[in-house]
Design brief:
Elements (H helix, E strand, L loop, with lengths): L5 H11 L8 E6 L7 E2 L5 H11 L3 H27 L1 E2 L7 E4 L8 E4 L6 E3 L16 E3 L2 H25 L6 H22 L6 H9 L6 E5 L5 E5 L21 H6 L1
Parallel strand pairs: 1-5, 6-7
Antiparallel strand pairs: 2-4, 3-6, 4-5, 8-9
Helix pairs in contact: 1-3, 1-5, 2-3, 3-4, 3-5, 4-5, 5-6
């Protein structure tokens, strides 16, 4: 199992210096012992209650900020698997576990299994010891692989969870998807810097593939360094101690007038 995830974990270590002690992810992405973890497709009330405790903010603000944290750590295994190995990990809500008692992050995520949901025919997993079956599926090309990314990340995780949150808290769908888009862009830019030969164009490839490209602006300098700017707001500027994120669409001048 560890060998199967080796290129992805190596890229994560290259970007963050570790794959076992990231504040918002299980060690090496996978939950080895499910005790203390809950299913990501369960009741959202504990998630929203934890958000209110952590940020001491209005319910819709706390929900938006929890989603921002949540969607970043959800995006990391997707972005790194795509850039490092052209694989789609199992990140549908039923395949992800969460816990809310971490000291270094408002939420931690972990995958139930390190085996990817989809790979290309050229991937060693397509013909290796783990033959195609329920755990590994082989798709025809990168376009089909992007469809898998959209299915497991957006259709089977982000969209249903956003709808569940909206049934409890009045918060807009567009800013929540904006957080997912910016987080996917940031995770991808980190992956690109860590994987030799990877191109900054991967940022646009993933955003376009998920239909999220209108929610962020991104540019790359001649050295391939990517800058990301949101087109929606995560509402951090409304906290009791207002905060502007590095990719914020809300300028300091606007904040001073608010």
């Amino acid at each position: 199992m560890e060998d199967d995830a080796a290129p992805v974990l190596a890229a994560i270590r290259g970007a963050f210096g570790t794959s076992t002690r990231l504040p918002g992810l299980a060690s090496d992405l996978v939950v080895a012992d499910p005790a203390g973890w809950t299913a990501a497709d369960g009741d959202v009330e504990p998630l929203l209650a934890a958000a209110r405790r952590h940020w001491h903010a209005q319910p819709h603000v706390a929900a938006a900020l929890m989603w921002k944290a949540y969607s970043y750590w959800l995006a990391v295994p997707v972005a790194f698997s795509w850039v490092a190995a052209r694989r789609v990990p199992r990140v549908a809500a039923s395949d992800v576990l969460i816990r809310l008692d971490a000291q270094q992050a408002p939420i931690r995520l972990g995958l139930r299994t390190a085996v990817p949901a989809a790979v290309l025919a050229s991937d060693p997993l397509a013909s290796g010891p783990l033959v195609p079956g329920p755990a590994v599926s082989v798709v025809a090309d990168e376009a089909a692989l992007l469809e898998e990314v959209r299915r497991v990340l957006l259709d089977e995780h982000a969209e249903p969870l956003i709808e569940a949150v909206q049934r409890v808290v009045r918060v807009g769908r567009r800013p929540l998807l904006g957080s997912l888009a910016s987080n996917l862009a940031h995770a991808t830019r980190h992956a690109v810097r860590a994987v030799p030969g990877a191109s900054a164009r991967e940022v646009g490839t993933l955003l376009d593939g998920l239909g999220l490209d209108s929610l962020v602006e991104w540019t790359a300098d001649p050295a391939g360094l990517v800058t990301v700017r949101r087109r929606t707001c995560c509402l951090a500027f409304t906290l009791p101690q207002p905060r502007l994120c590095t990719d914020c669409c809300f300028s300091p001048e606007k904040m001073a007038r608010a």
